[in-house]
């Protein structure tokens, strides 16, 4: 894939106008890419399906094993869903709130994730879970590694909708230097292979209102967990 390097740390990450979404890809690491605007052609089909998912398994606040309430609200769909409480992080086939299976992963969402993974060099990606994160202004995600999946052969595919975010992409140690990557509505980040376990996170979301998504950012993170 032909890609541009990520803009340097001196770039003004919030200076861009989200209406000027560019196409193309940027390489963050040996096997990690930002696919600019890649989700845009799917959004119109995807949003009603996402609303349907959230009507079945609404967003909820979760507590980490350390006792902190996450600032992002979460839900899931697919054969497995991710959750956390005081006893640990886990994937389960049932939504712990309803004790019903998580909503089915909608076709549009699955197709988008499979196509984005292939675009980034990961053919045959078959996600069995999509974690849905909702960030209101001020919400963030601390640096972490995605390690609850059974094996790390499959990549992580992460779709940004709504308000802009600054994504932090670090190394294999929490203390490694992070790249700051501005993610706009429709951008997709894919990381896998040698980059699969790199620390990542999201800086607090700035105030704003997105014309389609409102005063929030929704992130869809597809994984093969089981
Ligand atoms: O919201 C994002 O862009 C990243 C989400 C994330 O890191 C995660 O769900 O593990």
CATH architecture: Sandwich
Could you tell me the mean pLDDT? 91
Top-tier CATH class:
Mainly Beta
The count of helical stretches stands at: 2
Percent of sequence in beta strands: 25-35%
Number of domains: 1
Could you please say which CATH topology applies here? Answer: Jelly Rolls
CATH evolutionary superfamily: Alpha-ketoglutarate-dependent dioxygenase AlkB-like
Shape: globular
How is the main sheet built? 8 strands, mixed
- Helix-strand pattern: EEEHEEEHEEEEEEEE
Strand order of the largest sheet: 1-2-3-12-9-14-7-4
Gyration radius, rounded: 16 Å
**Stretches where pLDDT falls below 50 for ≥5 residues?**
7-20
Structural class: alpha+beta
Architecture blueprint of SSEs:
Layout: E1 4-5, E2 25-29, E3 32-35, H1 40-56, E4 73-78, E5 81-85, E6 88-92, H2 107-119, E7 129-135, E8 141-144, E9 156-162, E10 165-169, E11 179-183, E12 188-191, E13 200-202, E14 217-223
Parallel strand pairs: 1-2
Antiparallel strand pairs: 2-3, 3-12, 4-7, 5-6, 7-14, 8-13, 9-12, 9-14, 10-11, 10-13
2-oxoglutaric acid is lined by residues 131, 133, 141, 146, 158, 165, 167, 200, 202, 219, 221.
